[in-house]
Every structure is written in structure tokens, then in C-alpha cells.
Amino acid sequence: MEETTARLGSTSSSRARRNMTEKNRRKQMKDLIAKLASLIPTQTSKLSATKILDQARSYILQLQKSHEESLKKRKALFEGDRDQERYNLTAESSSSSSSRLMLPIMNITSSDSILEVNLICGLRNRNFMLHEIINVLEEEGAEVINATQQNAGDRVIYIIKSKAVIPRIGIEISRVQERLKDLVL
Questions:
Q1: pLDDT-derived band of residue 19, with 50, 70 and 90 as boundaries?
Q2: Do 77 and 120 touch, CB atoms closer than 8 A?
Q3: Which residues lie closer than 8 Å to 149 by C-beta, 6 or more apart?
Q4: 3-state secondary structure of 86
Q5: Between 130-139 and 173-184, two packed helices, what is the crossing angle to 10 degrees?
Q6: Stretch 17-30: mean pLDDT, rounded?
Q7: What are the backbone angles phi and psi of residue 171, rounded to the nearest 5°?
Q8: DSSP codes joined into one string, 59-80
Q9: What is the pLDDT of residues 131-162, one digit of tens each?
Q10: What is the separation, in whole angstroms, between the first and last Cα of the chain?
Q11: Residue 141: which region, alpha, beta or left (left: phi > 0; alpha: psi -120 to 50)?
């Protein structure tokens, strides 16, 4: 009789541990789903975990596509710049000097509340500093996530990624573009 009671006590104790472990796992999953939901920009109401995961997947695919397009544009800018340099080497000096005046090149892309500024300028005709570009972005309601400056031959390449401080309000891209043009050009 004692042996049966001991087994029942051990079984119920083991079951209670499994139940507690499962309860903790569900709570952790719920917390992680809530964190994920807070990162999705277009959330209108309470959604099921399945809907949240589906929206997160769609959002990630959208970001990936946007990033790929941005990289393609950047590559086209660089390749176009290289083609222009090759042309300049074979052209007369007057045309080569006029093509140098085409710098700086600025490309601004955005998706949701993310804004990316790509800027290529010459070392000699640069009349601004990276912090000035960052100041413009911050004044327009963007928080800079990442900013890089690279020297490539006689060019300086800036890549600045930022996000809206208040995603609901966003960033007015046309205003940012005008202010950066005034600063850079």
C-alpha cells in the first residue's frame, strides 16, 4: 500500500513539474509574441499569434525587398559612376571636368518609418560634414540608427540609416531631401 502511495505522489509531483514547465513555456511564448507585435509597424488591433507571425513574416519580406532594391540602386549609382570615369579618361579634358561637377550624387529611399540616405561626393568639392547631415535628419524627426563614411579613391561615400522617432507621424521625405540638397549641393 505504501509503495502505491509513493508512486502516486511521485507521479503527481512529476505531472505538476511538467505542468509548471509548460505554463512557463506558454508565458515566454506570449511575451515573445507581444515583443514581435510591437515591432510590426501597421498593427490596428489585438491579433492572434498566428496573425502576428504572418504580419511579421510579410514585414520582413517587405524590408528585404526594399533593402535589395536599395542595394541595386546603389550598385547602379556606383557602376554608372565607374562608367562615367572610363568615359572621362577617353574624353577631352573639358568634358571630364564637367562630369566631375555631377558630384555629389544623393539617393534617399524609405519604407515604412525607415529612411536611408546614400550620398557620393568628391573629396575636393565636399563642403559639409557627416554630423551636419545627421543634424538635419534629427531635426526632421529621424533617429539615426547607423551612419558610415567610406573613402573610395577620390570619393567619399556616406550611408545613413534612420528611423522615425514617432512612427505614426513619420518623416517628411520631401522636406529632408530639400534640406539635404541645400546642404550638400
A1: very high
A2: yes
A3: 130, 156, 157, 158
A4: helix
A5: 150
A6: 93
A7: -125, 130
A8: HHHHHHHHHHHHHHHHHHHHHH
A9: 888 888 888 888 999 988 888 877 888 889 99
A10: 92
A11: left
Are 159 and 145 contacting, i.e. CB atoms less than 8 angstroms apart? no
Nine cell digits for residue 12: 503527481
60 to 32, 39, 111, 153, 170: CA distances (angstroms):
16, 11, 12, 35, 19
* 114 alpha-carbon distance from chain centroid: 6
pLDDT band at 26 (very low <50, low <70, confident <90, very high): very high
Q: What is the pLDDT of residues 87-127, one digit of tens each?
A: 444 443 344 444 444 567 888 888 777 889 888 887 766 66
